[in-house]
Amino acid sequence: MVRVKNDDSAYVGRYLAVVADGMGGHAGGNVASASTVLDLVHLDRKDYDDGDAANQLADEIQTANTLLSELVNANPQLVGMGTTVTALLLNGNRLEFAHIGDSRAYRLKNDVFEQISVDHTFVQRLIDEGRLKPEEADVHPHKNVLMRVLGDVDASPELDLDSFEVAAGERWLLCSDGLNAVLGDELIERIVRETPDLRATVDTLVDLTLAGGSPDNVTIAVVEIAEATPEDLRTAALTTLPPAKEAAGEKGDDKPTGDQLPGSAIRADVIRQDLSSRPHMLVGSAALATETGQIPIVTQRTTERRAAMMLTHKAALDAELYDNDADAEEPASARKRWLIPAFLGLMALILVAVLWFGYAWTQTRYYVAEYEDNVAIFNGVSQTIGPVTLSHLDQTTDIPVSNLPEYQRARVESSLPATDLEHAQRIVEDLRGDLRAVACPPGNETPSPSPSPSASPSGSADPAAEPTSSPSPESSAQAAPGDAQGCRDESS
């Protein structure tokens, strides 16, 4: 079925296979599936320690779920989008399996064909509980209701995880629900068994599904476990891939529309460079977004994360492509040896840069504080880091701190911050004005002059009429202003 918009995405490489069926319809099912698949393709490598492949596969799917939530927060029109994920990661002789949603995984091994995945649907839960017969599921009104899915509905979705020992010759089929909605398991099994060529197997299943009137897009990935040959390890993907829109199963103008690709476009050079280093097949919305050179589904943070992963795994990827050359081959531990010193060196450079910029910023600041009992201006900030002082004396003044009012004295002792030198100088002038207004301390007051004794107008020798040496009320009132004025003049 060819739709205006394909919500499916899939990737098949040497060690990784992923199928994702987006949901959310017009809102962004294609965004969810493409974003998730592109966030997982860096796992397509073989340098995993024991048990590490399973953990990384599960962790990266959870991280992809977090990135979908961030996309929804940045683009509210994407609310409600989600995607299924069914993934296989080959590590040595084990195959790690992760699954959520209703996309399916089938396995043909030792002549036994079986469905490995369990549909996370409402009708499957009813079947498991014995409340619904399997043959009734196809006609149930809620057969398409998903119980578990990646998206903005669950911060930590529950994944089905498993690990299988593999043998050369076994086949796996991953598909979106567009296949099993039309074809029964018996027909799928017969085609997988009887068609030796993998591409012919996929083409036959797709053609039969479309001929049966699939109500949904159908995406199928068939992989076969094989012993690696030196030629396999040397050869990159040289197969000519179909144009992006054909691989995506879409139609319409070549120019992406706002409905198809919401958000501002981000160049996909980093991801295309990563993909070009390994043999792979990318189809669906992920192919459309990547091959057209625009990745609006991937945020700037995702792009930076992809670039960091490429740098981290560059040595491993280079060695993997040429590991048939005995002279170039070396143990994985040796290939990783440079990572720790490189990481520590990068962290040291970042720390030095942060400290330098921080110190440079402090030297643009000023503050007013006490220096040898006088008010002074300092350049920097009044803090220290260990033995390092972040300021130095810039200017001193002749203003005694001890002569300031108690409130201003306390402020100066605790330092007064200033935005620049001019601001600091204004603070000093304000303090100088406060100093002039301070009353003279006791002991500095000038005593009021006592009036001289005056003779009795009558010239009487009567002792009772003798003049007294105490000043008159008028004289005292006139002397007080003169004392205050003299104190201010002395201060100035």
Question: How would you summarize this macromolecular structure in one to three sentences?
Answer:
Helices cover 39% and strands 20% of the residues.
The chain-level structural class is alpha+beta
Task: Count all strands and give the number.
Answer: 16
Q: N-to-C terminal Cα separation, in Å?
A: 96 Å
Which residues sit in consecutive blocks of at least 5 with pLDDT less than 50?
235-241, 252-267, 311-322, 324-329, 439-492
Largest sheet: 8 strands, antiparallel
Helix share of residues?
25-40%
Strand content bin: 15-25%
Please tally the helical runs, counting DSSP H or I stretches of 4 or more residues.
16
Mean pLDDT: 75
Coarse shape:
elongated
Radius of gyration, taken over Cα atoms and rounded to an integer in Å:
42 Å
Structure description:
The protein has 492 residues and is of the alpha+beta class. It contains 16 helices and 16 strands. A hairpin with a 2-residue loop joins β13 and β14 (374-385). α1 packs antiparallel against α2 (52-74). The chain is elongated, with a radius of gyration of 42 Å.
How are the SSEs ordered, and which strands pair?
Layout: E1 8-13, E2 16-23, H1 29-40, H2 52-74, E3 82-83, E4 85-91, E5 94-100, E6 104-109, E7 112-115, H3 122-128, E8 150-151, E9 160-165, E10 171-175, H4 177-180, H5 185-194, H6 198-211, E11 220-224, H7 230-234, H8 244-248, H9 269-276, E12 280-284, H10 285-291, H11 300-321, H12 332-336, H13 339-362, E13 366-371, E14 374-385, E15 388-400, H14 406-414, E16 416-418, H15 421-436, H16 473-491
Antiparallel strand pairs: 1-2, 1-12, 2-3, 2-4, 3-8, 4-5, 5-9, 6-7, 6-10, 10-11, 13-14, 13-16, 14-15
Helix pairs in contact: 1-2, 1-10
